[in-house]
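Weekly sync, protein design subgroup
Attendees: M.S., D.O., the rotation student, P.L. (late)

Item 1: inverse folding check
M.S. brought a backbone from last month's batch and wanted to see whether the design step gives back something sensible before we order anything. D.O. pointed out we never logged the input encoding, so this time it goes straight into the notes. Structure tokens as presented (159 positions):
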């Protein structure tokens, strides 16, 4: 596994675009997320975050501060995490675990008014659920129906 000083969470930059538009996932993973090249236009309250290794994009996700967050929690100081993906050729190197473990300090620095991160993970997506639990997310016992069936709502307190 790579040392964490080579891995960072960064807001989307123009220099990331070329690699992000070439991200690939296996078919089984594509059904659970949206590819970065479909999400590279920032909307109000939606922030594109890039996981980099030695300044090269290896992963991507979105953080939301919009009213959409309230579908998952009643906490007005929560962020919603969506669309996590790690480029297929970069998988298995620990980037998802390390990137997600960096969420708390990143949120404290970039979004200091927020104290929770919530997400929905399809109950059929066991690898993602395992990853989120590994980095400290807990199952809230709340469920919603998603496009592919039941989704578990998970939460990470930012303290």
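Designed sequence read out in the meeting:
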């Amino acid at each position: 596994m790579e040392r964490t000083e080579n891995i960072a969470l960064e807001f989307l930059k123009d220099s990331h675009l070329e690699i992000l538009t070439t991200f690939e996932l296996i078919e089984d993973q594509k059904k659970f997320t949206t590819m970065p090249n479909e999400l590279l236009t920032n909307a109000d309250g939606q922030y594109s975050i890039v996981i980099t290794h030695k300044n090269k994009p290896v992963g991507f996700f979105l953080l939301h501060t919009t009213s959409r967050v309230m579908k998952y929690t009643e906490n007005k100081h929560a962020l919603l995490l969506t669309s996590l993906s790690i480029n297929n050729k970069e998988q298995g190197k620990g980037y998802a675990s390390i990137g997600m473990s960096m969420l708390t300090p990143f949120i404290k620095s970039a979004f200091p008014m927020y104290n929770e991160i919530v997400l929905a993970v399809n109950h059929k997506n066991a690898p993602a659920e395992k990853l989120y639990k590994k980095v400290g997310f807990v199952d809230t016992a709340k469920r919603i129906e998603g496009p592919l069936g039941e989704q578990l709502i998970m939460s990470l307190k930012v303290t």
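Discussion: The longest strand covers residues 56-64. The beta strands are 7-11, 46-53, 56-64, 78-86, 116-122, 138-146, 149-157.
Action: P.L. to compare against the previous round before Friday.
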